[in-house]
């Protein structure tokens, strides 16, 4: 595997791609962990109607916005990504709920 450089230190597309691949491996591992929490939520929530929690969704989006702002990231981009992630997480949680308890 190629040495991983900071983005500002990349001079070739090989270095850029190695960095992206490394980040993607980490992101996938973190998503596995995040979806593990969705599995736990499906196990813990009292009924199917509790799976969709609009207050919690708004809370997560607010925290993401705060973090994006603090890091100087495009807040609208992060909001779009997290909107998709949250909705996908809810769909997954509903599926797990139905498979295990429905």
From TrEMBL:
The keyword rRNA-binding does not apply. Residues 7-97 form the Chorismate mutase domain. Its EC number is 5.4.99.5. SUPFAM superfamilies: Chorismate mutase II. It is an enzyme of class 5 (isomerase). Pfam families: CM_2. PROSITE patterns: CHORISMATE_MUT_2. GO terms for molecular function: chorismate mutase activity. Keywords: Isomerase. This is chorismate mutase. It comes from Sphingomonas caseinilyticus.
């Amino acid at each position: 595997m190629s040495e991983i450089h900071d983005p500002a230190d990349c001079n070739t597309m090989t270095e850029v791609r190695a960095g992206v691949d490394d980040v993607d491996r980490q992101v996938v591992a973190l998503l596995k962990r995040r979806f593990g929490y969705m599995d736990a939520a499906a196990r813990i929530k009292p009924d199917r109607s509790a799976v969709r929690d609009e207050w919690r969704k708004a809370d997560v989006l607010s925290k993401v916005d705060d973090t994006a702002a603090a890091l100087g990231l495009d807040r609208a981009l992060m909001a779009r990504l997290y909107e998709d992630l949250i909705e996908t997480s809810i769909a997954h949680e509903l599926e797990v709920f139905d498979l295990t308890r429905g």
